[in-house]
Design brief:
The complex is a heterotrimer of chains A (373), B (527) and C (191).
Chain A lengths: L1 H16 L5 H13 L4 H35 L6 H26 L15 E2 L9 E2 L6 H10 L23 H15 L21 H16 L16 H10 L1 E5 L6 E7 L23 H42 L1 H8 L29
Antiparallel strand pairs in A: 1-2, 3-4
Helix pairs in contact in A: 1-2, 1-3, 2-3, 3-4, 3-6, 4-7, 4-8, 5-8, 6-7, 9-10
Chain B lengths: L2 E7 L3 H13 L5 E4 L10 H9 L18 E2 L40 H5 L9 H14 L2 E2 L25 H9 L5 E2 L2 E2 L21 H10 L6 E4 L2 E10 L2 E9 L4 E12 L2 H11 L24 E9 L15 E3 L5 H4 L4 E5 L8 H6 L4 H8 L3 E9 L8 E8 L5 E6 L4 H20 L3 E7 L34 E3 L14 H24 L1
Parallel strand pairs in B: 1-2, 1-10, 2-7, 3-16, 10-18
Antiparallel strand pairs in B: 4-6, 5-12, 8-9, 9-10, 11-14, 11-17, 12-13, 13-14, 15-16
Helix pairs in contact in B: 1-6, 1-12, 4-12
Chain C lengths: L30 H18 L10 H12 L6 H18 L1 H11 L19 H19 L9 E2 L5 E3 L28
Antiparallel strand pairs in C: 1-2
Helix pairs in contact in C: 1-3, 1-5, 3-4, 3-5
The chains are: A mainly alpha (373), B alpha/beta (527), C mainly alpha (191).
Chain lengths: 373, 527, 191
């Protein structure tokens, strides 16, 4: 049996190398592993699986941020409540990613960020929601539906009696991923090192015990999906789970709770949809220099360069660079919008109502030279 | 010798706006910027750790401050200098916004007509409404956060970002303001959106507090601007006249090589601040301008004025809520006494000292106090402080001139002849009484009042704008009177000082001048 | 029992040296030295009962500070090694807990003008160096990184803070102003 599991793991690792792995395969492997008691012989397999699941979590959490950022920046009035809601979602995704990185670092493994950056349009990593193609576009009806699918919980709490469904049927979820991660931590009870973990405003605490891992995962799931079938508002009505925030945007209504019975309903009062830049879906491969006006190309190029630098720093933070790198990563992240927003104001053509948008591509930084003064 | 389109002397807030707007309009502009100081790296981690953990909390730009021993201002009756300069400005790439507090307030309409309204001082040759659209641009540029519903002055656009809310420590003073019919306001501050509230604004690790240095570095790094150059450690010593009405260029010393260099340009813009510009003008004597460029009427350097800070400290018997400093900028202010009605008696801009109550937990631990002792101190007696800037009127006799000797950058030292008038002293006393009243209304015991010796941070007036050459140095478009191609963009051009910080107004003027120059450029091309 | 200044430490601690930072080239400290320094830092939390459970949350920031101070000029490497040696000696003499207690609560760096606010510290012993350049700076780091939260709140009868109060402090990275948490303690109007 042990040999069979070792073979299975080898196959999975090969798929990971070629970026063709999916969570279903990992979950199946986990199910096989969990049938066996933990022993010295299979310990390394359990640990290897945990590390792969955590790396998948890191990559997934990162993958949601570019489309959410594009949608956020397309909202012209940054003070609009929907912009505020989106911004909070992005902060929380950052927190989730940081927790996932910390968990991986606690096992002595360096999270890979710069080698696992998704391209758009494309599928989410690790085969999550395999029928969904994630695109970069402004905030619009389709992007909202896509975001809801990304955040979809295993059990949806009905709002005003309504539920949500989409055309795609395979919905292996991020929640299940974290469930497996927690199971493995509890099974292995590993000794956790804090040495390469980062804490700060975007990663509230380090994980130095399995109990802390449990807290972190509970928070991630509650913020993302809500608690299991019970409430979209475990972290407060002002802090709905992401799925339900997107649902509010879709319905143009706030979700409130009935005083009696505790049911959740959509408020009667309509929420105005914000004025947005009509950012078109970024095409496959992103925009090329020959196809866009100079003004747009300058912004696209500077965005991609800054984005690549940000990824380098983010990766570096958990790979020896520490706090200094994450501070620089934050700064770069915050500066992306000064290229993105003006870009979204540039029309693609006289006849087309749509505008350009950032491509979130990794570029070769070695060709950049700064002028000396 | 290559002729530049522009030479800009200085690299601070005004210079950066001008360079940015000129280059964005025409990326191939041949623009040379000359800065006497050096580049001081920003957001450097070791420097931040030094600042926050070392006993003396050093900051990397402090070495550029004027030395106290260089002070050549008038000595007052008390045997002390009447004007201090040390700590007031940074001489480096990016200029003094490297160390400023970021308070970004507009002047008010009446500030532009000080003489008409009060018979004192001078009127600006432009009014508030003419500058208003540029205030809006400046606020957008510096990401100023504020509350437009406070209605301190007319505005065409909301603030780009909502204000920082009042802190709990502001509470007692807010209540006192209300009780005395003083309208409390939220301090508008130039904070980029990425403020992470570290409270270390003086050397922000995120580059969150606006600093011209960041914008200037982006301009330098922009591959499009191939003809833009910034030369640091380059001290301009002379402005060269080709004729009475035309400047041909400047001389500067390259401090790296000790070489004297001459450069030429179609237009020269002086952005080196309210001290260095008048000294440079006065030093630039020639057959056309025997008293110095722009100085035929002996007005360069005159009317020097700044804000003297007034302070009243009140002692509370206890601090039951354990309040201490949280932000590194004030959140509470009031412009109730910065009003047309108050103008003839001297305006007053009130704000709460951000650092009070001052609880230095780390120092108490370093001093060996236990936790119980520290908690007792936190909840014990503490101080709150009300501060204010009072408006003063520039006097003809108050003047800045070239001092004896040079500083470490090779810039001539500064001599300042200045005396506060009896009227200023009387006004200060009246203001202090008002401020004491507020402190007492808070239920505090007044323990100290203080009138600061004027320090040069907000110096204005040394090259004031005017309608005619007989009454000032620059015209309504910041062009030096009677010279076709020399401009000044500095606090020095302000015709009045108002009661609030000058930087937002300077930035607005820079936006306006940039637009003017770009329009001139387009007309020239069309011809 | 806490020791008085003049008798604190042994031959090593009382060795006379110059007041300036002990010179060393920038270098990376060995892992065991860093671990010993970390123990010193963690003891601050233990003795003031702030961040005693959460010291680990500060480790990434602390490591960054150590790296910045040892791998760039002026390097603190020799000061850190000195501090570890001083603590070792004090521990040998008084036992671990007493050693820290003495260093934190009893030892006072001699001052040039004790009654004057502008007094300068006299840093001429290894002990004084350890206190000034290492202990004091670690205390500042710990407070600004989150230690302040454990002061000023509601305390129980034995002075232990049971309800944390502080939200922000100079040097503390609270978060973006668009965070949904309060960045500072905010003013609430009396209704």
């Amino acid at each position: 049996m042990l040999n069979k599991l070792k073979e299975q793991l080898k196959k999975i690792e090969h798929e990971i190398q070629s970026k063709t792995h999916n969570l279903t395969a990992l979950f199946n492997f986990a199910d096989e592993l969990f049938k066996e008691k933990l022993t010295e012989e299979n310990h390394s397999l359990n640990l290897a699986l945990l590390k792969h699941l955590l790396q998948s979590a890191v990559t997934l959490e990162f993958a949601t941020m570019p489309p959410y950022l594009a949608a956020l920046w397309s909202i012209k009035d940054e003070r609009h409540p929907m912009a505020a809601s989106l911004r909070e979602i992005i902060h929380e995704e950052m927190l989730h990613m940081s927790f996932a990185c910390n968990m991986l670092a606690s096992l002595g493994e360096a999270p890979q960020i710069k080698t696992a950056v998704p391209v758009y349009p494309g599928k989410l990593p690790a085969g999550v929601h395999p029928d969904l193609t994630v695109k970069l576009s402004g905030l619009n009806e389709q992007s909202i539906i896509d975001f809801m699918e990304i955040e979809m919980p295993e059990q949806i709490v009905p709002i005003s009696g309504e539920t949500f469904s989409c055309d795609h049927t395979d919905h292996s979820t991020v929640g299940e991923l974290y469930d497996h991660i927690l199971t493995l931590f509890e099974r292995l009870q590993p000794e956790l090192s804090v040495d390469n973990q980062i804490s700060g405003p975007l990663a509230m605490y380090v994980v130095d015990s399995v109990e802390k891992v449990r807290y972190a995962i509970t928070l991630i799931k509650r913020q993302g999906e809500g608690s299991h079938g019970n409430s979209p508002a475990d972290t407060g009505m002002d802090d709905l789970a992401h799925f339900y925030r997107f649902w509010e945007i879709k319905k143009r209504r706030k979700i409130i709770q009935c005083p009696q019975g505790g049911d959740f309903i959509f408020d009667d009062k309509a929420l105005p949809f914000p004025d947005v830049w009509p950012m078109a879906e970024v095409p496959v491969g992103g925009y090329q220099q020959a196809d866009v006006p100079d003004e747009a190309w300058q912004l696209i190029q500077r965005f991609d360069t800054t984005y690549t630098e940000m990824i380098e720093k983010l990766h570096g933070a958990w790979n020896g660079g520490g706090q200094g790198d994450i501070i620089r990563a934050h700064e770069l992240m915050f500066s992306l919008q000064k290229f993105a927003r003006p870009l979204m104001a540039i029309p693609r053509s006289a006849s087309d109502n749509s505008t350009y948008g950032p491509c979130f591509r990794q570029v070769d930084l070695s060709s950049n030279t700064n002028k000396e003064s | 010798m290559e002729e530049h389109d522009y030479i800009i002397v200085g690299s601070g807030a005004a210079a950066t706006v001008l360079a940015k707007k000129i280059l964005e309009n025409e990326p191939l502009t041949k623009l040379l910027m000359l800065e006497a100081g050096d580049i001081i790296p920003a957001k450097e981690r070791r420097q931040w750790w030094n600042y926050t953990t070392c006993a003396d909390g050093p900051l990397p730009y402090q070495y550029t401050y004027d030395e106290k021993s260089d002070n050549q201002s008038t000595i007052g009756k008390d045997g002390q200098p009447t004007w201090t300069t040390s700590g007031g400005r940074v001489k480096a790439f990016g200029g003094s916004t490297m160390h400023w507090g970021g308070w970004a307030l507009r002047f008010k309409p009446e500030d532009f007509q000080l003489f008409t309204n009060t018979g004192q001082g001078a009127d600006w040759p432009i009014d508030y409404h003419e500058l208003e659209p540029y205030y809006a641009q400046a606020e957008q540029y510096m990401s100023v956060c504020g509350d437009e519903t406070e209605n301190w002055q007319p505005r065409s656009t909301p603030y780009p970002i909502p204000p920082f809310e009042w802190t709990a420590a502001d509470g007692e003073m807010i209540e006192a303001f209300h009780a005395l019919d003083i309208q409390p306001g939220k301090m508008p501050v130039a904070r980029y959106r990425k403020c992470m509230t570290t409270g270390t604004c003086k050397y922000c690790p995120y580059g969150a507090r606006f600093s011209a240095q960041y914008v200037l570095q982006e301009l330098v790094d922009n591959q499009e601007f191939i003809n833009f150059k910034v030369l640091t450690q380059s001290v301009v010593t002379n402005i060269i006249s080709a004729s009475k009405t035309e400047i041909s260029g400047v001389d500067y010393i390259n401090n790296k090589t000790n070489q004297a260099v001459t450069v030429t340009a179609k237009k020269v813009i002086l952005c080196a601040g309210a001290y260095e510009i008048p000294k440079l003008l006065m030093a630039s004597t020639n057959k056309y301008w025997p008293n110095g460029i722009g100085n035929d009427h002996d007005l360069v350097g005159r009317f020097i004025v700044t804000h003297s800070m007034l302070e009243v400290t009140g002692k509370a018997k206890s601090n039951p809520h354990g309040l201490w400093q949280e932000y590194d900028f004030p959140t509470l202010m009031s412009r109730t006494y910065d009003s047309p009605e108050q103008q003839k008696n001297g305006k007053l801009f009130l704000f709460k000292d951000r650092t009070r109550p001052k609880i230095d937990i780390a120092q108490l631990m370093i001093d060996g106090m236990s936790k119980i002792e520290i908690n007792k101190i936190i909840r014990g007696a503490c101080e709150f402080k009300l501060q204010a800037f009072m408006e003063e009127v520039g006097q003809f006799e108050s003047r800045l001139s070239i001092g004896e000797g040079k500083d470490r950058f090779g810039l001539p030292l500064t001599k300042i002849d200045y005396q506060k008038t009896d009227e200023d002293n009387k006004r200060a006393d009246n203001h202090l009484e008002l401020m004491k009243n507020i402190i007492e209304k808070m239920g505090l015991e007044v323990v100290k009042t203080f009138k600061q010796t004027p320090r040069g941070d907000h110096t204005t007036g040394t090259c004031r704008m005017s309608a005619t050459a007989e009454t000032g140095v620059t015209d309504a478009n910041l062009k030096v009177h009677n010279i076709d191609n020399l401009y000044i963009c500095s606090n020095g051009v302000f015709s009045s000082n108002s009661a609030v910080n000058p930087t937002l107004t300077l930035t607005a003027l820079a936006h306006r001048l940039a637009e003017h120059l770009n329009q001139q450029n387009e007309v020239a091309h069309a011809e | 029992m806490a020791q008085r200044n003049s008798t604190i430490g042994g031959e090593l601690s009382q060795t006379l040296i110059t007041a300036e930072l002990i010179f060393s080239e920038p270098c990376t400290l060995p892992a065991n030295q860093i671990e010993k320094l970390w123990q010193i830092f963690a003891q601050i939390g233990e003795h003031w009962k702030d961040v005693y459970n959460e010291s680990k949350n500060l480790k990434s920031a602390w490591l960054e500070m150590i790296k910045a101070k040892t791998t760039q000029q002026p390097s603190y490497s020799a000061e850190y090694i000195n501090a570890v040696l001083v603590i070792d000696e004090l521990t040998q003499l008084y036992g671990e807990q007493e050693a820290y207690k003495t260093l934190f609560f009893s030892y006072k760096i001699p001052q040039s003008q004790p009654e004057n606010k502008k007094s300068q510290p006299i840093l001429t012993t290894r002990l004084a160096h350890a206190k000034y350049y290492v202990i004091d700076e670690f205390i500042r780091m710990q407070v600004l990184s989150g230690g302040f939260k454990h002061f000023g709140g509601q305390s129980n009868a034995s002075g232990e803070v049971v309800k944390v109060q502080g939200v922000n402090y100079k040097g503390f990275v609270k978060g973006s102003r668009y965070s949904n948490e309060n960045l500072v303690r905010t003013f609430k109007a009396k209704t």
